[in-house]
Structures are given as structure tokens and as C-alpha cells.
Design brief:
This protein has 294 residues and is of the alpha/beta class. It is built from ten helices and 13 strands. The chain has two domains: 215 residues, Spore Coat Polysaccharide Biosynthesis Protein SpsA, Chain A; 68 residues. Strands 1, 2, 3, 4, 5, 6, 7, 10, 12 and 13 form a ten-stranded mixed beta sheet that branches.
Length: 294
């Protein structure tokens, strides 16, 4: 029987210890003797010796140099594109701060095989991650959680069975070739924001599906939402908008692309709402300061 060929795609920037730990967990998967695994790592001009350390420890990893300004989506787009050109059976998206459990890849493959037997031949499989200290859910498959807002999502807790999702976080995702042949690469117009969610939502537009694999497959700390940073801190309006306009914030052009694609005919309203909220929060905080000082 032909062994499945899998390309793992990662992007990194100045997180040498995390990147090495992630690769160590990947190379400790239970089924490595039953698959052909190639690893594509985009090193986005790290200055902490990440590329050199990876090359020395894992010389088989294909290291792709970045420009220093790729961020998550830009780096994954570059690495994913390199892997797509080779045409693998499966593609594994993996964040370099995500530590796979030894059974993770086996579970992902068993899930995609089991769904195919039930007629789901074009299914993306998302692996759920938990906090390594608390065990709480951090990333995985997501579903819509608002009756009125089409761009509001929540992560679903994994169960013993695969669960259908609306889209997914890109921390640990297995994508079969049949899906990639329809969707292609991540959207190049995104820098950091929305690339993974967009890919999952586009899957449904192309008659593919997204599923959450059974159980937790890895550990990963949750990063604080960028929105909480630029809404909660004591900043001036100028400082808040500077945060929002950064690639890790909510760049208006990229947010507009996402909203136009996935928010329906009222997309403009859903696109502009976060910026109106930002103005209102800033105005409220300014009025509070005036009342306090008077």
C-alpha cells in the first residue's frame, strides 16, 4: 500500500526554542514509519539563530527564507505555495508554538479517512489544542455564535467524534489534496489577520467541509485577542488607531476583503462596526478623564 505523502508547513520568527520544540513533537509522531513527511519552514528573517539551529538539528527540513515582514498568513502562504507545487496527498498547517501529542497525526489521518468513507471526500480536519497548564480549550474548529453578526465565531470543545464546523484556526489543520486542488493557497492579500478563517469559509463555497477531530491533539497557549489590547489599554485615539492599523490589529483593507466575502449584503455595516466601537470607546474614556479631572 502506498504511504501517504504529507507536507507540514510552518512559519516562524525569533522563537527558536518554541520552533525546535514544535519540530521535536512533530518528529515524534507515532506513525512516522507509515507516512512520507516533508517539512517546510518559513523563517521570516529571524535574528535569534532559528534557521541555523533548525538546520543543524533537523537538516531534512526545507527552510525557506522570508523578508522579515511576512507575519503568519504571509509566511504560511509562502510555505504552502512551495508545498503545493510538489503535490502532496495532505498538507499540515502547524503553528510553531503548537506541541503535537504523539497520536495527533494518526488521529487527523484516521478522521479524514473515516469521513471519506461516509462520503465526505473533501474535508478539512482541524485539531483542537488546549492550554498546557490549565487544560482549557485554546484553538481548533469554530462555529458561528451570533444570530445577527455573521463574523462572530466561537471555538468548539472537541468530543469523541468528529464535529462539523464553519471554519477553523490554523494552528493544527490537515488539508487533503482534493481540497487544495479547489481552494489553492491562502489568500495573498492577508498579512496576518483572517487567512485561516477565510480558507475554511471558502471551503464551503467550493463544496468542501471543515471538521474538528476527536479529542485534543496538541497544547498551545492562547494569545490575548488583539481587540482586547487596543480597546482596554489607556491610549489616545491616535495610539489606538496605530495599533489597529498594524498587521496584527485590524487593517481596514484586509478586514474589508474578509467582510465582503463572508458577511453578506450588509458587509459594509459589519466591516465598519469595530472602528465605530473604537471611536466610541475612546470618546467614553476621554469623557471619563475629563469628569475625573474636574
Amino acid at each position: 500500500m502506498k504511504m501517504p505523502r504529507i507536507a507540514a508547513i510552518l512559519t516562524c520568527f525569533n522563537r527558536k526554542s518554541k520552533t525546535l520544540a514544535c519540530l521535536a513533537a512533530l518528529y515524534q509522531q507515532e506513525i512516522l514509519d507509515k507516512i512520507q513527511l516533508d517539512v517546510y519552514l518559513v523563517d521570516d528573517a529571524s535574528t535569534d539563530g532559528t534557521a541555523e539551529a533548525v538546520q543543524q538539528t533537523y537538516p531534512e527540513v526545507k527552510i525557506i527564507p522570508g523578508t522579515g515582514g511576512l507575519f503568519w498568513n504571509g509566511g504560511m502562504h509562502l510555505g504552502f505555495g512551495k508545498a503545493i507545487a510538489v503535490a502532496y496527498d495532505y498538507y499540515l498547517w502547524l503553528n510553531d508554538d503548537t506541541l503535537l501529542y504523539p497520536h495527533a497525526l494518526k488521529t487527523l489521518l484516521e478522521t479524514t479517512t473515516g469521513l471519506a468513507q461516509k462520503g465526505e471526500h473533501q474535508a478539512i480536519i482541524a485539531g483542537s489544542t488546549c492550554d498546557p497548564e490549565t487544560g482549557e480549550l485554546t484553538y481548533g474548529g469554530v462555529i458561528h455564535n451570533s444570530w445577527w453578526h455573521p463574523l462572530k465565531f466561537k471555538c468548539i470543545t472537541p468530543t469523541k467524534q468528529p464535529q462539523c464546523c464553519d471554519t477553523m484556526y490554523g494552528n493544527c489543520v490537515l488539508i487533503p489534496q482534493k481540497v487544495v486542488s479547489k481552494l489553492g493557497n491562502l489568500e495573498s492579500q492577508f498579512t496576518h489577520y483572517a487567512g485561516d478563517f477565510d480558507y475554511g469559509l471558502r471551503a464551503y463555497q467550493n463544496n468542501c467541509t471543515v471538521w474538528s477531530a476527536p479529542g485534543y491533539l496538541a497544547t498551545c497557549h492562547r494569545n490575548p485577542p488583539e481587540e482586547s489590547i487596543w480597546l482596554s489599554q489607556q491610549m489616545s485615539l491616535k495610539e489606538r488607531f496605530k495599533k489597529v492599523l498594524q498587521p496584527k490589529g485590524l487593517p481596514p483593507k484586509e478586514a474589508m476583503i474578509f467582510a465582503r466575502r463572508h458577511a453578506g449584503f450588509l458587509w459594509f455595516l459589519y466591516w465598519i462596526l469595530p472602528y465605530i466601537r473604537l471611536l466610541l470607546v475612546s470618546t467614553f474614556k476621554s469623557s471619563q478623564k475629563l469628569e475625573t479631572s474636574s
